[in-house]
UniProtKB/TrEMBL annotation:
The chain crosses the membrane at residues 68-88, 100-120, 154-174, 186-203, 208-226, 246-267, 575-597, 613-634, 641-662, 674-694. It is found in: Endoplasmic reticulum membrane. This is Protein O-mannosyl-transferase 1. GO terms for molecular function: dolichyl-phosphate-mannose-protein mannosyltransferase activity. It is an enzyme of class 2 (transferase). It is a multi-pass membrane protein. The lineage of its organism: Eukaryota, Metazoa, Chordata, Craniata, Vertebrata. Gene3D superfamilies: 2.80.10.50.
């Protein structure tokens, strides 16, 4: 029975030493001296704030993209024991001892290092030689800009890693498809393609470009499968469903999961939640939730409420009134009603409280049982402190003369009767009998007499209006804008009929017994919309550039300067590699055009399998460069050189493809082929020499002299920092 023990158990493994060597060199180049400099480097000042907020579980909104990349950076801080206590206020600030610099920079560095073996495998899967694949990987290894970007707490190296992983996974899946349908490895690489694509998009929306490219390639490949008569209809349907599951459904589900984790982690109120709706704010711990928790859900006649404008621009504000009146004459000579001012005030204030009154009754308290207000009901809004009624009439608004003035009515015994009836319209109602709900209902108020809608114009009133925001009556039109929509934020059931007692009540905090929670999908939809539409004012940055500057690297970015010496770090690429990548792209496009014209004339310069290889490689590399570069010409945002790095990576992969093609099909005889290989070796040596030349400003050490720094300024447009000592 124990005969099998007579022979040893042998495990045989094939190890690609090229991959091992490339991985080791990549790790050495990216991880060496990773904690240097122990100071905030360029955009670490930006991403570090989000890491601190993750550590403290405080909600934030970043309009630059989805949260997955931020969570990965925060994971590095968590693994390093970071408590989030550091003031990220300026570039160059020295890190305190509680900041685990090495841990925070680890994941970007690992991602950058792993891009090198990924590049090697992509070229191998494209059916190019191991020599060409090794050359392409070494070019990624020696690219100064990729090294710099991967050694700090930045997202581009993580993005490029997931992009390359998605490309490699799809190529492996496609190559397996030729002889192995629905096997374990076939499913693994197909599913990994979708996972990597969703991770790329989750890091930065730039990942969407490569995702769309791979979807287009997968669609083209499936189109070719439709012509295969050996595949049954059932088999084709299975292939279609498998691709739909792996490349669409799973990425969408993963993308949602990033937000789910993000919202689960960040449950505390913070400075960014003010741009969110009242319902969203109330779902966070602290902040508005402390005020609104336990408020009555249904607005009833007699309810005391504050009304927040849903638009939130130019700032969040609440419907407000005070005892001051509109001036009799404006500066431009127009007259006003001289009624009590109604504005939108961007701060919490007792003058933000209004009472919902039934026009047919005099009482200003909630009856027992409460009578809820429903969609379509007519109400009067009474200002809680001054007890005057919200009113609008055919008088021009102070700053918006085409709209009606909104005021609180004062009876001057003149021929200007009160017009204070408003119809409640619930915009997000599910039925026409919906009850007006606290926080959840988005409401507009339509004036009964004039059909004008209560609207925030957004204009700031002059000194007489205390620079508060103008509120107007806008004539009812088709559709609606968020500036016309309001929601109840704070709410209590009024109990005091006497004015003095009611004023005390209005100054008191709300204490009720009903709480409200948003579903995950409601919070996701709102947060996603804010990310896509929220625009910070883009200001011209000293190191911003245009997309045209990137191809020839006419710009650089100074990332860090030592406070006392001339040591500095710049985002500068390997000039020879960038130039060679541009040449390779031009050669590829010219050769492709030449081949297409010749093939149209039935002249075939290269074998059919070589042509298919040439086209597929171009679809990945040239396509990857195009989709990651050209969209920046359409973007209205501040651009920097690092935005070009994903496109550059694809362009670098094109260099060995073009070189091998030239060697195999243009230099066929022994002597030209030998001379061509000698030129390649000389060129590669030059690439290494350029890498070494710029290494001091890639790694930040050693410190260079003034003369050496001047020698590095190969282009007049480069801003090399020179401090005279």
């Amino acid at each position: 029975m124990l005969g099998f023990l007579k022979n040893p158990v042998v495990v045989t493994a094939e190890i690609n030493m090229n991959l091992v060597a490339l991985t080791v060199m990549g790790l050495m180049s990216r991880l060496w001296g990773l904690s240097y400099p122990r100071a905030v480097v360029f955009d670490e000042v930006y991403y570090g704030q989000f890491v601190s907020l993750y550590m403290k579980r405080i909600f934030f909104v970043d309009d630059s993209g989805p949260p997955f990349g931020h969570m990965l950076l925060a994971l590095g801080g968590y693994l390093g024991g970071f408590d989030g206590n550091f003031l990220w206020n300026r570039i160059g600030a020295e890190y305190s001892m509680n900041v685990p610099v090495w841990s925070l920079r680890l994941l970007p560095a690992l991602s950058g290092a792993l891009c090198i073996p990924l590049a090697y495998q992509i070229l191998v899967e494209l059916q190019f030689s191991h020599c060409a694949a090794l050359g392409g990987a070494l070019l990624i290894l020696l690219e100064n800009s990729l090294i710099t970007q991967s050694r700090f707490m930045l997202l581009e190296s993580i993005l490029i890693f997931f992009i390359l992983l998605a490309v490699l996974s799809y190529l492996k899946f496609y190559n397996l498809q030729r002889h192995s349908f629905f096997s374990g490895s076939w499913w693994f690489w197909l599913l990994l393609t979708g996972v990597a694509c969703s991770c790329a998009v989750g890091v930065k929306y730039m990942g969407l470009f490569t995702y769309m490219l791979l979807l287009a390639i997968a669609g083209l490949h499936f189109w070719h499968m439709l012509g295969d008569q050996n595949l049954s209809n059932v088999s084709l349907m299975c292939h279609f469903l498998a691709r739909g599951l792996a490349l669409i459904i799973i990425p969408v589900a993963m993308y949602l999961s990033f937000f789910y984790v993000h919202l689960t982690l960040l449950y505390r109120s913070g400075p960014h939640d003010q741009i969110m709706t009242s319902a969203f704010q109330a779902s966070l711990e602290g902040g508005l939730a402390r005020i609104t928790q336990g408020q009555p859900l249904e607005v009833a006649y007699g309810s005391q409420i504050t009304l927040r404008n849903v638009l939130g621009k130019p700032m969040q504000c609440w419907l407000h009134s005070h005892t001051n009146t509109y001036p009799i004459r404006y500066e431009n000579g127009r007259g006003s009603s001289h009624q009590q001012q109604v504005t939108c005030y961007p701060f919490k204030d007792v003058n933000n409280w209004w009472i919902v009154k039934d026009p047919g009754m005099q009482q200003l308290v909630v009856s027992n049982p409460p009578r809820p207000v429903r969609h379509g009901h007519i109400v009067q809004l009474v200002h809680g402190i001054t007890t005057r009624y919200l009113n609008t009439h055919d008088v021009a608004a102070p700053l918006s003369p085409h709209s009606q003035e909104v005021s609180c009515y004062i009876d001057y015994n003149v021929s200007m009767p009160a017009q204070n009836l408003w119809r409640v319209e619930i915009v997000n109602r599910e039925s026409d009998t919906d009850v007006w709900k606290t926080i959840l209902s988005e409401v507009r108020f339509v004036h009964v007499n004039t059909s004008a809608v209560l609207k925030l114009s957004g204009a700031s009133l002059p000194e007489w209006g205390y620079r508060q925001l103008e509120v107007v009556g806008e004539k009812l039109s088709k559709g609606y804008h968020q500036s016309m929509v309001w929601n109840v934020e704070e709410h209590r059931y009024g109990k005091s009929q006497e004015q003095k007692e009611r004023e005390v009540e209005l100054h008191s905090p709300t204490q009720m017994d009903i709480s409200k929670n948003l579903s995950f999908m409601a919070k996701f939809t709102e947060l996603q919309w804010k990310i896509l539409t929220l625009k910070n004012e883009d200001t011209e940055h000293k190191y911003s550039s245009s997309a045209l500057d990137w191809i020839t690297m006419d710009t650089n970015i100074a990332y860090w300067l030592h406070p006392t010496s001339r040591a500095q770090i710049h985002l500068l690429g390997n000039v020879l590699t960038w130039a060679s990548a541009n040449i390779a792209a031009v050669v590829y496009m010219c050769l492709s055009l030449w081949y297409l014209i010749r093939r149209r004339r039935k002249i075939y310069d290269i074998p059919e399998d070589a042509w298919q290889l040439w086209v597929s490689a171009g679809g990945i590399c040239v396509g990857g460069w195009v989709v990651n570069y050209l969209p920046f010409f359409l973007m209205e945002k501040t651009l920097f050189l690092y935005h070009y790095l994903p496109a550059l990576t694809f362009q670098i992969l094109l260099i060995p493809i073009v070189l091998q093609h030239l060697s195999d099909h243009l230099f066929r005889s022994v002597l030209p082929k030998s001379m061509f290989r000698a030129l390649i070796i000389a060129w590669f040596s030059s690439v290494y020499l350029v890498y070494c030349t710029f290494s001091p400003v890639t790694y930040g050490e050693p410190s260079l002299s003034v003369a050496e720094l001047k020698d590095l300024r190969w282009k007049d447009s480069w801003n090399i920092l020179i401090r005279k000592q």
